[in-house]
Structures are given as C-alpha cells and as structure tokens.
Automatic annotation (TrEMBL):
Annotated ranges, domain EF-hand: 65-100
Membrane-spanning parts: none
GO BP terms, alphabetized: endothelial cell migration
Source organism, top-level taxon: Eukaryota
SMART domains registered for this protein in UniProt: EFh, S_100
Signal peptide residues on this chain, from the entry's feature table: none
Organism, scientific name: Gasterosteus aculeatus aculeatus
Pfam families: S_100
Protein name: EF-hand domain-containing protein
InterPro entries: EF-hand-dom_pair (IPR011992), EF_hand_dom (IPR002048), S-100_dom (IPR034325), S100/CaBP7/8-like_CS (IPR001751), S100_Ca-bd_sub (IPR013787)
GO molecular function, one term: transition metal ion binding
C-alpha cells in the first residue's frame, strides 16, 4: 500500500467512515489477521488461505473443504509464483469473487 493511502486509512475514524471505506478497512484487517498466523506477516501461506476461505467465505467456497480445490485455487491466486499470497493477490481474489456474485445477481 502507498504511504498516502496508509496515512488516509489510519486517520479515518470509524464514526465517519462510509460503507465502502469500512469494507476496504475490513479487507485489510482480514488479510492482516490471517497473514499473522505463520511465517511472513505480509503474505498468506497455503494453510492461511485455507483457513481464511473456511472461516470467512464458507458460503462462497464450499469446495475449500476439498484439498485438491484449495491447491488449484491457491495456484490461481499466486500470480507471481512465490508460494505465498500477498495483499494485492488477495484483493484480486476478493474482486474476482465479488464480480462473479454481482454477475450472478444481475442475470436473473
Ligand atoms: Ca505470491
């Protein structure tokens, strides 16, 4: 995250945050919470990704219970191939899932 953005989010008070700002802050908080589990605190390991999917996206990703599916998903998330999912890779996943849900909702 850029220094400017970092400054911006750390000076927002909860009372004045809009829903979108809150959602963005929650994304960061969720990533940080799970990334702190093991190894680097700036990235998610495969085990951390699995825990995050199971706890935070149980409805969307029932397949996360299948180890093969987690492997597949992890590989598709890890764009730069370093076996860790960093924040930008995590955000891409959330954005992709959000788009998938949005499309599904609008094609009724
Ligand atoms: Ca990576």
């Amino acid at each position: 995250m850029s220094a400017d953005l970092f400054f911006f989010f750390h000076h927002l008070s909860k009372a004045t945050m809009t829903q979108l700002e809150t959602a963005m802050a929650m994304l960061m908080k969720t990533f940080d919470t799970y990334a702190a589990g093991e190894g680097s605190k700036d990235t998610l390991s495969k085990a951390e990704v699995k825990t995050l999917l199971e706890k935070e996206l149980p409805g969307l990703l029932k397949s996360a219970k299948n180890p093969g599916e987690v492997d597949k998903l992890f590989k598709s998330l890890d764009f730069n191939g370093d076996s860790e999912v960093d924040f930008s890779e995590f955000v891409v996943m959330v954005a992709a899932l959000t788009c998938a849900c949005h499309d599904r909702g609008s094609k009724k």
